[in-house]
Specification:
Length: about 210
Amino acid sequence: MNLDQARLELQRAEANVGRMTIRAPIDGVVVMASIVRNGEFGQIREGDQVNAGQPSVSIVDPGSMVLDASINQVDAERLHLGMKAVVRVDAYPDIELQGTVIGMGAMSRASTFRARFVGELPVRVRIERTEPRLIPDLTGSAEFVLRTEAPTVTVPREAVFQENGASFVYTGRRTAGPGRRFRWVQKFTTAAIHGGVEKGGVVALARPW
């Protein structure tokens, strides 16, 4: 009788172990989910209470990393799937990674850092090249390449003024324009100029009067 009871207990224990065993579907790095503990965020650890359906861990493939970002809704029309980007990681300022836009949200959401009436759209950027120091949950940013140009003079976007449909800048000697051609390249904050300003020249960020 005692032997049969012991076998039943053993079977019950083995069944419980099987129910609590999670097998990873892919190779990768285990990342513990975050939980609010004493009013602060922290990784789940032994003794924490996890509710049904609440994510507890993630399996991340270091060879296939993405950056989940958000953009101002007014800039959404400038982006499209397949657009190239340069990804930077806050923890390692010297790293520049090439990326490609692989996803864009269709619905805007309230901004966390901007005024609530300014919507944001989620964007997902695939990082094309792996980097040994790159690990999950790091913060970073991306600069989207709107178009490329041959080597040319660039000025800050704030230095470009518009009047009567013409774009121009104020230089140390004279105004380059109206009528000079400008194109937005590389960043939302930089403009390429095709004449009227020499490399190393001084431009004004505000009207001189």
